[in-house]
Amino acid sequence: MRVVFGIDVSKVSSEVAILVNGEKVHNYTMSNDAIGFSRLLGDLRTVHKPEIIFEATGVYSRRLQAFLDEHGYAYTRLNPLEAKKQLDSLRVRKTDQIDAEKLAQSQFVLNRKPTYVQEEVYQELRDLSRFYQNLTEDIVRAKNRLHKVLQVTFPELETILSTPTGEQYGNLVVAFPCKDFVLDLSKDELSESIRQSTSKRISDKRVAYLAEKLIALANQSYCAVKKTSPMLEEVRYYTKELLRLSEQRQTVLDQMVELAQPLPEYDILLSIPGIAETTATSIIGELGDIRRFQSANQINAFIGIDLKHY
């Protein structure tokens, strides 16, 4: 007797279809929580070696996958492109919704192998990689917002260093959001502020150069708002947020490198010209254990690329 559980995962609940030797014997809706999973576990335990198949739906199917892993059940997880292509090959109409029963029925024809369960380190790297990407997007937004408000208060300050990024630049912007904060200080006070702007050692010659440049930029600048304007607080806010996000992103990258270094593929990826630690760890995080793929087409299917369109 062959029993297949097809599970169509949605945000709050999942549809479960149970087929025995190709015939549907039961279907129901379960909640995606401990109560719903307990009901599913009860059904699974009545069957010897059940086949479980579901479509990956991002964060929504993650809990189901973790539940099945915890209880030692093998499963077949399909990405949306893979599921669509397989059901298309079975002549399921393209307008039909891919539901739990269709997934289960297709398993009797396609006889898919269970999904390879990776070591936990690969899931952790994926989570960190996604966190890193989100932080990068937040950094870009913060940079754009800072640039916008600086155009009103002190646009010349963006040229104080070779590139308007990093710890020292951020601290200088916080200290001098408009020209008045430069011109109100004596040269000695200005020099001390510059020294405090970086945690690195800075020579007297470099301090003097930056002080002179700051004064020149301040004399050149025309601030569109008063020294008491709330826009100056906005400048400081986005700058501090940018510094915080950048520090958090570096922490995440350090964690990714620490996890990836013991993996054999890490050094191989680093040996490829143009690939540094950020790219290497991100590739591992997104692809996972590449040894589970038997061909390039399997990698394409996992990523969700249909090369016929390119």
Automatic annotation (TrEMBL):
GO terms for molecular function: DNA binding; transposase activity. Residues 6-155 form the Transposase IS110-like N-terminal domain. Residues 125-152 form a coiled coil. Signal peptide: none annotated. InterPro entries: Transp_IS110-like_N, Transpos_IS110, Transposase_20. Residues 267-309 form the Transposase IS116/IS110/IS902 C-terminal domain. The keyword Transcription regulation does not apply. Keywords: Coiled coil. GO terms for biological process: DNA transposition. It comes from the Bacteria. This is IS110 family transposase ISSsu7. It comes from Streptococcus suis.
